[in-house]
């Protein structure tokens, strides 16, 4: 089982968020027991910015959490583009950036499921995606 993890869950653990931190950490542990946990290059970049500068600290933190690094394949990128175009055609505003679509497409195309707190967005635009929310780690 390959679980993609979203930025929100990682930031919950690293900051740590008093509400979601413990739930996110436990959900991550559960996913690691069930297989491999990976984050796309987009998520790694977003996590690195949380440190205020690009540094080895971000890499060390991700490695300590046992989160693997994976690049987004071409078919995932094209899936993201298709979903973003549909979103825009349906009147979606540019507030929702392409990176969110890349994270969802990566999970759909290259993984088995996504661990994220952003259920609404992913359920709306990636209906076939199996989602795990930290408050309810078992699908």
UniProtKB/TrEMBL annotation:
Entry's Gene Ontology molecular function annotations: hydrolase activity; metal ion binding; nuclease activity
Keyword Transmembrane attributed: no
Cofactor needs: Mg(2+)
Record keywords, A-Z: Hydrolase, Magnesium, Metal-binding, Nuclease, Toxin-antitoxin system
Top-rank lineage group of the source organism: Bacteria
Name the UniProt record assigns to this protein: PIN domain-containing protein
InterPro entries assigned to the protein according to its UniProt record, in alphabetical order: PIN-like_dom_sf (IPR029060), PIN_dom (IPR002716), Type_II_TA_system_RNase (IPR050556)
Residue span, PIN domain: 5-123
Gene3D superfamilies membership: 5'-nuclease
Pfam families, per database record: PIN (PF01850)
SUPFAM superfamilies: PIN domain-like (SSF88723)
Organism lineage: Bacteria, Pseudomonadati, Nitrospinota/Tectimicrobiota group, Candidatus Tectimicrobiota, Candidatus Entotheonellia
């Amino acid at each position: 089982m390959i679980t993609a993890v979203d930025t929100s869950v990682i930031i919950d653990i690293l900051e740590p968020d008093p509400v979601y931190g413990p739930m996110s950490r436990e959900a991550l542990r559960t996913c690691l027991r069930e297989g491999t946990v990976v984050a796309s290059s987009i998520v790694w970049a977003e996590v690195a910015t949380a440190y205020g500068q690009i540094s080895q600290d971000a890499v060390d933190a991700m490695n300590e959490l046992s989160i693997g690094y994976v690049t987004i394949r071409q078919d995932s990128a094209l899936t993201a583009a298709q979903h973003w175009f549909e979103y825009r055609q349906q009147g979606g505003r540019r507030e929702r950036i392409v990176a969110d679509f890349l994270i969802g497409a990566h999970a759909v195309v290259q993984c088995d499921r996504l661990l994220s707190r952003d259920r609404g967005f992913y359920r709306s635009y990636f209906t076939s995606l199996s989602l795990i929310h930290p408050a309810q780690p078992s699908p």
